[in-house]
C-alpha cells in the first residue's frame, strides 16, 4: 500500500500491537476470563460507539469526513442486542462504565463532532479493525464461552457482505483525502492515541479480572 492509508497503518503499528497483546485480550480469546469480563468489555464498546456514531451523524455533511460516515458500519443496535442477552432485560441500569472508557468517550465527544481529522482517525482505528478480525473474534468467543449468535452480533456486519472489498474501498478513501498536511499529521497522532485509549480499557479490565479468577466458560 502507498499513500495515507499506508502512512497511518505504519505509524500505528506499535500502538496496535500493544493493544492486541494486552493480557486481558489474550486471556479472553483463550476463554480464561470469566464471561462477566466479556460482558463488561461489550458494555464499554457501547459507550464508545454511541459517541463515535453520534459524531458520524454530526459529520455527515463535512466534505472530508462524509465518505466515512456510513450507517452500514453502525454497531450500537448490535451492541444493545448483545447486552440485553448478556445482562438481561434490565441491562441499561446495570452495565458499568470504566474510568478509562469515560475518558475515551470524552475525547470522542470533544473532538470528533467538529474535526474531520480526529473523526477519521478514531473511525479508522475502530471500524477497520472490526472489519479485519471481527467475524473470527466473534466465532472464537462464541465457541469459548458457549454463546449463541444473539450475544455476539457486534462482530457481524450484516450490511457489508464483502468485508475485504469494503476495506479496500475504505483505504482508497483514506488515500483520496484532501486534508492539508498539518491535518493529516493530526489524524495520525490521534489514531495512535485511539489505540492507547483502547489499551487503557484492556488494562483496567485486566486488573478487574486477574489471572487467578476462574473462567466461567
Please explain how this structure is put together.
The chain is an all-alpha fold and 217 residues long. The chain has one domain (4-207): Heme Oxygenase, Chain A (Up-down Bundle). Helices cover 68% and strands 0% of the residues. It has ten helices and no strands. Helix 4 (35-58) packs parallel to helix 7 (99-111), helix 4 runs antiparallel to helix 10 and helix 8 packs parallel to helix 10.
Number of helices in the DSSP assignment: 10
Structural class: mainly alpha
Q: Give the tally of β-strands.
A: 0
What's the overall geometry? globular
The helicity comes to 55-70%
CATH superfamily: Heme oxygenase-like
**What gap, in angstroms, lies between the N and C termini?**
40 Å
Low-confidence stretches: none
The total tally of domains equals 1
Give the mean pLDDT: 92
Strand content is under 5%
| CATH topology title | Heme Oxygenase, Chain A
Q: If classified by CATH, what would the architecture be? A: Up-down Bundle
Radius of gyration, rounded? Answer: 17 Å
Tell me about the biggest sheet? none
Question: For the record, what CATH class applies?
Answer: Mainly Alpha
What sequence of helices (H) and strands (E) makes up the elements? Answer: HHHHHHHHHH
Which terms summarize this structure?
single chain, 217 residues, 10 helices
Structure summarized in a few sentences:
By secondary structure, this protein is mainly alpha-helical.
Ordered list of secondary-structure elements with their pairings:
Blueprint: H1 4-11, H2 13-20, H3 23-30, H4 35-58, H5 76-87, H6 91-94, H7 99-111, H8 116-145, H9 163-175, H10 181-208
Helix pairs in contact: 1-10, 2-10, 4-5, 4-7, 4-8, 4-10, 7-10, 8-10
Amino acid at each position: 500500500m502507498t499513500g495515507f492509508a499506508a502512512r497511518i497503518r505504519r505509524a500505528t503499528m506499535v500502538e496496535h500491537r500493544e493493544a492486541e497483546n494486552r493480557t486481558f485480550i489474550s486471556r479472553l480469546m483463550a476463554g480464561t476470563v470469566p464471561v462477566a469480563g466479556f460482558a463488561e468489555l461489550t458494555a464499554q464498546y457501547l459507550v464508545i460507539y454511541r459517541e463515535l456514531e453520534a459524531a458520524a451523524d454530526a459529520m455527515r455533511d463535512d466534505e472530508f469526513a462524509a465518505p466515512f460516515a456510513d450507517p452500514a458500519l453502525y454497531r450500537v443496535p448490535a451492541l444493545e442486542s448483545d447486552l440485553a442477552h448478556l445482562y438481561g432485560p434490565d441491562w441499561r441500569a446495570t452495565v458499568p462504565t470504566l474510568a478509562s472508557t469515560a475518558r475515551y468517550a470524552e475525547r470522542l465527544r470533544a473532538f470528533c463532532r467538529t474535526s474531520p481529522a480526529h473523526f477519521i482517525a478514531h473511525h479508522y482505528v475502530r471500524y477497520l479493525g472490526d472489519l479485519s478480525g471481527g467475524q473470527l473474534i466473534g466465532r472464537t468467543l462464541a465457541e469459548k464461552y458457549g454463546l449463541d449468535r444473539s450475544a455476539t452480533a457486534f462482530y457481524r456486519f450484516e450490511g457489508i457482505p464483502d468485508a475485504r472489498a469494503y476495506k479496500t474501498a475504505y483505504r482508497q478513501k483514506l488515500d483520496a483525502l484532501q486534508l492539508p498536511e498539518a491535518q493529516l499529521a493530526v489524524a495520525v497522532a490521534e489514531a495512535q492515541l485511539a489505540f492507547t485509549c483502547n489499551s487503557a480499557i484492556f488494562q483496567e479490565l485486566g486488573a478487574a479480572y486477574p489471572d487467578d479468577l476462574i473462567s466461567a466458560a
